[in-house]
Amino acid sequence: MQFKLATLATISAATLAAATGGSGSPSNQCNTGTLQCCQSVGAANSTPIAALLGLLGIDVGSVTGLVGVTCSAITVIGTSGTSCSAQPVCCSNNSFNGVVALGCTPINLNL
């Protein structure tokens, strides 16, 4: 009986840990969007980014997530020559030729 109770407690704890997710730190992969290396990343409503979005005709109020500025694609992680000396992010909208990327989430390539 004690063995069954201990097994049930262990399984319950493992299930709870898996269901609660990580620590909230940046992940090391893109679940949605593409992997980008951006020279800077910030909120859409920050003054310099809002001005840039305005010049591109993008409504600041419609932007969710962070905005990457001066971004380039990172194609393969772990191969020689592929690195990002700025901010690696996953972005859901990269249709602005690298000037800006919308809906960005920081990631950690060092994991």
TrEMBL record:
Coiled coil: none
Superkingdom as given in the UniProt entry: Eukaryota
Localization (cell): Secreted, Cell wall
Origin species: Psilocybe cf. subviscida
GO cellular component, one term: fungal-type cell wall
Protein name listed in UniProt: Hydrophobin
Leader sequence residues: 1-17
GO function terms (MF aspect): structural constituent of cell wall
InterPro entries: Class_I_Hydrophobin
SMART domains, A to Z: HYDRO (SM00075)
CDD domains: hydrophobin_I
Family to which the UniProt record says this protein belongs: Belongs to the fungal hydrophobin family.
Keywords: Cell wall, Disulfide bond, Secreted, Signal
